[in-house]
Amino acid sequence: MYNTAGKTFKELALDINFWRQLNPDLTITEYSRSDWGPYRLTAQQKRDVRESLIEDGYFHLHSVFAPEELKKLADAAKVLHREQWPTVFAFVYDEFWHVQNRYRDILTEMLGKEHRLMPNIWVFYINPDNESKGWGPHRDRQKIVNLRPDGTPLSINFWTPLTDATPLNGCMYALPASRDRYYSTNTSTTLAEDLQDIRALPAPVGSVLGWNETVFHWGARSSNRASEPRIAIASVFQSTECGAFETPLLPVGQLLPFEMRVGLIAQQFSRFIVQDTFSPAVQQLSQELAPYFGETIRILDDGWRYWDIMSDEPDSLREESIEKTSSNQLPTPPKGFEKGREFKSTFEEIRQARSTPSGIDEPGSKESSANGASGSDEQKSESKNWLEKLGLK
Ligand SMILES: [Fe+2]
Asked: Of the ranges 128-137, 211-220, 286-295, 373-382, which one carries the lowest mean pLDDT score?
């Protein structure tokens, strides 16, 4: 029986065994393979998805997952919610990364062969009551053009419901791009002038919704008459034919070391503070855990500077040389990546810096660690050692 007595939230968050005992059906490893192969689009679906993305700014694919595949993820999110952890902490579990393997062919079709995950993840949990609601109307990246001249996207937000998202429990709504008069002229305006243009996007479990980062959208208010919470995973991907909208970019489906997942999760609270309300305790926890990612998320912002999300200092804005193009009204980031922008080098450095795993399974050791055999004082001190080598402790 795991004893949380006397432990701080930070200590719990960094204890791999805490998360394992909380959801024993899920895994935290660096090596586990996903059984979830890519979803194969038919030729007709490829045409439909492309057309939908250009015309509406979003796509909706059904039966990408079997509902039973996602049940344990929904159950895990419910456990986190019950224990009063923000549900984005579900990204400590491998399975929340494995879902990306199902997206691979869809991503290739939409973004091209070369694409990455942005350090931009979330798990929504909207209570089934009149008070709860999703994030308000917005465009994900309103200051940056992230569309190709033909209207296809350079970046996409994948939104995977873990429970049926319905009008009663706060499903997504969007203003289709073709009905949005500001879509290509003034993306800082978020306005639906004709209410009949607004489209509800109910999404059953197993389907995947996705939208480009320019489309105007929001999560609706839930209802006392909803039968279950609205739970969904969001992850944002981008093509590498242009520069990074955010750094560091991550390989799709890559399992990060446990502590790095915790740090990446923690940094999301700084990113989404404009969308959501977080208690002072959560804000403090996120500040304490953020360094474990090993790098600070930076977002390309207005004025073509990268904004360090963990800093309020004005000098966190750094000018980048951004090549303006004539094909779009606003410039997209330059082609190719600048040195050090890709995550891989940092990831490899961290692997090399770690002399032994810090409580994370080696191949074939899943059973022993799942039973709580890892996480001894010795291993915790090893964990500290590699963090120290990286200057994180
Ligand atoms: Fe959004």
From this structure: 373-382
Q: How far is the CA of 294 from the centre of ligand 1 (A)?
A: 26
Which overall architecture, per CATH, does domain 36-344 show?
Answer: Sandwich (2.60)
**Cβ–Cβ < 8 Å for 199, 211:** no
Q: Structural domain boundaries of the chain?
A: 36-344
Q: How far is the CA of 134 from the centre of ligand 1 (A)?
A: 10
Q: 140 C-alpha to center of ligand 1: Å?
A: 5
Residue 317 scores a pLDDT above 50: no
For residue 218, how far is its CA from the centre of ligand 1 (angstroms)?
A: 6
Strand ranges across the sheet with 115-126: 58-61, 208-212, 155-161, 230-239, 115-126
* Residue 391 alpha carbon to ligand 1 centre in Å: 34
CA distances from 298 to 120, 140, 341 (A): 11, 15, 10
State the distance from the centre of ligand 1 to the C-alpha of 220, rounded, in angstroms: 12
What is the tens place of the pLDDT at every residue in 10-26? 999 999 999 999 999 99
Where is pLDDT greater, at 168 or 333? 168
